[in-house]
């Protein structure tokens, strides 16, 4: 299979990205039909950080970061670098030096289905990373792979130019072809949630405004006022 670097990719329009930046991962995941969510094993090394931007993908042989160096060259300001491996591995694929180079290119952050090292230095730099592991094991720089090829990260398919959103709750992928639908659905969901907050503020119960009491009945959930003594007698 040919290994390659694709220099130029189609990215979402900036005004669309800016609207997604007002949203959160859970809202977008739910709004687009509960799809695109990466596995919970990819965790942020920082807290209270949110990124949103087009994906540049780097597909590397496990334990080798040559293609990450190749990806740096094609990254543009605002991009999110998504790193995956062929083969299982959690070696420290990026560290302080690569992060410094990515920051110089204006990259927003990294999502990687592998490991990082220099975690303290990366946190000090304020660079957002979602990763599967923090591990000091080093890598080689001798094996080719792919930059801007379709890949799978954290169980979710990612194509170059797809929108990547990440926050404290996880990482979600919005496919380029679904961006308009996902944005409109997310806005509608937020409007609905505002209405729900108003109901809660008025003292209404979720059992009622979600019409959940019939479900309790169907599931034969029984209410008792004070005691379970009749159960003990049985």
Task: List the SSEs and their pairings.
Elements: E1 4-5, H1 14-20, H2 25-31, E2 43-44, E3 51-61, H3 66-74, E4 80-86, E5 92-94, H4 96-104, E6 109-116, H5 119-125, E7 129-134, E8 146-147, E9 151-153, E10 156-158, E11 163-167, E12 170-174, H6 179-201, H7 206-209, H8 213-218, H9 229-233
Parallel strand pairs: 1-8, 3-4, 4-6, 5-6, 6-7
Antiparallel strand pairs: 2-7, 3-8, 3-11, 9-10, 11-12
Helix pairs in contact: 2-6
Binding site for substrate: 95-98, 117
Enzyme class: lyase
Protein name: Putative 4-hydroxy-4-methyl-2-oxoglutarate aldolase
List the defining traits of the structure above.
single chain; 234 residues; alpha/beta; Glucose Oxidase, domain 1; ten-stranded mixed β-sheet; 9 helices; 12 strands; elongated
Order of helices and strands: EHHEEHEEHEHEEEEEEHHHH
Main beta-sheet annotation: 10 strands, mixed
At CATH level 3, the topology is Glucose Oxidase, domain 1
CATH architecture: 3-Layer(bba) Sandwich
Distance between the first and last residues' Cα: 69 Å
Strand content: 15-25%
Low-confidence stretches: none
CATH class bucket: Alpha Beta
Number of domains: 1
User: How would you sum up the global shape?
Assistant: elongated
Radius of gyration: 22 Å
Mean of the pLDDT scores? 95
Number of strands: 12
CATH superfamily: Ribonuclease E inhibitor RraA/RraA-like
- Structural class, by secondary structure, is alpha/beta
Helical coverage, percent range: 25-40%
**Number of helices, where a helix is a run of at least 4 consecutive DSSP H or I residues:** 9
Family: Belongs to the class II aldolase/RraA-like family. Belongs to the LigK/PcmE family.
Keywords: Lyase, Magnesium, Metal-binding
EC number: 4.1.1.112, 4.1.3.17
Enzyme class: lyase
């Amino acid at each position: 299979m040919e290994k390659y670097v694709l220099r130029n990719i189609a990215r979402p329009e900036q005004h669309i990205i800016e609207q997604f930046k007002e949203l959160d991962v859970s809202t977008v995941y739910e709004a687009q039909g509960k799809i695109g969510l990466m596995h919970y094993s990819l965790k942020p090394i920082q807290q209270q950080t949110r990124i949103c931007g087009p994906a540049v993908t780097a597909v590397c042989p496990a334990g080798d970061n040559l293609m990450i160096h190749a990806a740096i060259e094609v990254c543009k300001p605002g991009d999110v670098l998504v790193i995956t491996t062929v083969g299982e591995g959690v070696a420290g694929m990026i560290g302080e030096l690569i992060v410094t180079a990515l920051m110089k290119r204006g990259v927003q952050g990294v999502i990687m289905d592998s490991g990082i090292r220099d975690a303290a230095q990366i946190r000090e730099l304020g660079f957002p990373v979602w990763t599967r592991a923090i591990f000091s094991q080093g890598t080689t720089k001798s094996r080719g792979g792919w930059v801007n090829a379709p890949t799978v990260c954290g169980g979710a398919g990612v194509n170059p130019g797809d929108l990547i959103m990440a926050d404290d709750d996880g990482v979600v992928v919005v496919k380029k072809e679904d961006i308009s639908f996902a944005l409109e659905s997310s806005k509608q969901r937020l409007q609905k949630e505002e209405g729900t907050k108003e109901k809660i503020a008025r003292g209404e119960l979720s059992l009622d405004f979600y019409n959940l009491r019939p479900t309790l009945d169907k599931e034969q959930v029984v209410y008792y006022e004070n005691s379970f003594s009749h159960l003990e007698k049985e």
